[in-house]
Design brief:
Shape: globular
Order of helices and strands: HHHEHEHH
Helix content: 55-70%
Distance between the termini: 42 Å
Strand order of the largest sheet: 1-2
Length: 155
């Protein structure tokens, strides 16, 4: 699909984002911010549950590039600007983010017990493993089954 096409075009950039950029940003937003907001210590479990839920739902979002309409292209050209692609964001209803709920809860516990730095490391590690599987998948998709040679011993 489109993710795999993007992955093949910008492999190093995609892996760097998966292993560094996203874990740092997501951990600061979903684990760091709720903890820093203050308030009663008794509210922490509720914040953890809400944060984990939003983390899972966020992974269910799907962005699709949308070409500008002809009228938007005309307006952009009249203004002397290059027409820009837009993104249409929707919820991927075919994907239930159960792994993200489980991992989000785990990252929350790591952040609460060990600190945000450790939850970033845990998140980066999980994403690095996922990137490895994505890389293996992209390689197997590129391989043409007709190019595979099967040797037999004749026994």
């Amino acid at each position: 699909p489109k993710f795999m096409e993007e992955y093949r075009r910008n492999k190093a950039k995609t892996i760097a984002a998966m292993v560094l950029k996203y874990p740092i940003g997501e951990e600061l937003i979903f684990r760091g911010a709720p903890a820093v907001l203050g308030g009663s210590e008794g509210l922490m479990p509720i914040r953890g549950i809400l944060s984990t839920y939003v983390f899972g739902k966020m992974h269910q979002l799907k962005a699709t590039k949308v070409e500008p309409t002809p009228s938007e292209k005309v307006v952009e050209k009249l203004l002397g600007k290059k027409p820009k692609q837009k993104a249409d964001v929707s919820i991927n209803r075919n994907m239930v983010p159960i792994p993200q709920y489980v991992l989000g809860g785990y990252f929350w516990m790591v952040a609460r017990r060990r600190g945000i730095k450790h939850s970033i490391i845990a998140h980066s590690t999980v994403n690095a493993v996922a990137a490895g599987f994505i890389d293996l998948s992209s390689r197997s998709e590129q391989q043409d089954p007709d190019d595979t040679i099967i040797e037999t011993t004749g026994r």
